[in-house]
Amino acid sequence: MVIICLAEPADLDALIAIENTCFKHDRLSRRRIKHWLGASNGIFCVAKLNGEVAGYGLVLLHKGTRHARLYSLALLPACRGKGVAKRLVMALEVGAADKGRLFMRLEVAKHNDAAIGLYQQLGYRTFGEYSEYYEDAEDALRMQKRIRHPRESHQVLPAPWYRQTTEFTCGPASLMMAMAGLDVAILPSRSTELDIWREATTIFMTSGHGGCHPIGLALAAHKRGFATACYISTDEPLFVGGVRVEHKKALIADVDADFKSKALKAGLNIHYSALDACALKKFVAQGYAVLVLISTYRLDNKKTPHWVLITAVDERCLYVHDPDLDEEEQSALDCQHVPIALDDFEKMSSYGRDKLRAAVVVHRPVKHKSTER
């Protein structure tokens, strides 16, 4: 019988014996093992087989990051191949997630096929490599896995993920996901993506093609039969600050005014105030779809406005479908229900020097009652 539990000081001698048996290089010393047994910034678990310590896993929790690091994993040779290592890693993931970590990272020797296979089976993917990382000059693969997911106890928008097909259509892609999450009859497509962009574009951005105005997106959703509301932190023309040419600024202001005029005629609810995390959580809990404008600086070090769709909110995180896929570093799954700590999101959800905050709340399709004749 295998039991996974927290390591205790009484396990010290057994842990040292496992360390010396499993590793020829890069061994943890008795002093370091003793340190981690009492450290508050780590999770130290042991696997006990028939009451005896058969292996351990150690995760480090560094301050200032949302990542946990699987620092060491060891299992006695006689206990391998029985699923014990898998159970150890899974227990460490749960512990790290409960302490607010969103991702688990690790390093593994390139020649260690068994360990790599285990991590891949658990959902880890390679995102980098270290040359001559270990004492014996062996190279190491860097692997990562998302360990925080929306819980079944929280409201989750059943929106399909859609990848934007151009660099400037994150808004239309997010809106299509929102509408499809509210109405299964909606099928996201490139044709609709481009139609919405033409309807909602601001004409110009800092460079290249224009992005989408929140009121423009709300009008596009309204046109397709959805009730919408817009929350914007200012009533001044949006995105003007990122454009240097005066005639382009004037054109953006004209487009802004046109969107506002159309919204007034359509009876849309435009609120010149920002939504905080508490308000976002309430909308999601009520089954609404919420698009939020974020700055990508904390994602890619680029100060670019970017639309994402909120799919769930819990006590620690907000989860989003991100339509922008980086094929070199991501798979489609990496862009779905992406966890963002609430504190981090507060910083991400403002754009530019003016700290613009914008959100579009989309309701279920309006049902029109037929009249009898």
TrEMBL record:
<dbReference type="Pfam" id="PF11814">
    <property type="entry name" value="DUF3335"/>
</dbReference>
<keyword id="KW-0012">Acyltransferase</keyword>
<protein>
    <recommendedName>
        <fullName>N-acetyltransferase domain-containing protein</fullName>
    </recommendedName>
</protein>
<dbReference type="InterPro" id="IPR000182">
    <property type="entry name" value="GNAT_dom"/>
</dbReference>
<dbReference type="GO" id="GO:0016747">
    <property type="term" value="F:acyltransferase activity, transferring groups other than amino-acyl groups"/>
</dbReference>
<dbReference type="InterPro" id="IPR021770">
    <property type="entry name" value="DUF3335"/>
</dbReference>
<feature type="domain" description="N-acetyltransferase">
    <location>
        <begin position="2"/>
        <end position="148"/>
    </location>
</feature>
<dbReference type="InterPro" id="IPR050680">
    <property type="entry name" value="YpeA/RimI_acetyltransf"/>
</dbReference>
<dbReference type="Pfam" id="PF00583">
    <property type="entry name" value="Acetyltransf_1"/>
</dbReference>
<keyword id="KW-0808">Transferase</keyword>
<dbReference type="InterPro" id="IPR016181">
    <property type="entry name" value="Acyl_CoA_acyltransferase"/>
</dbReference>
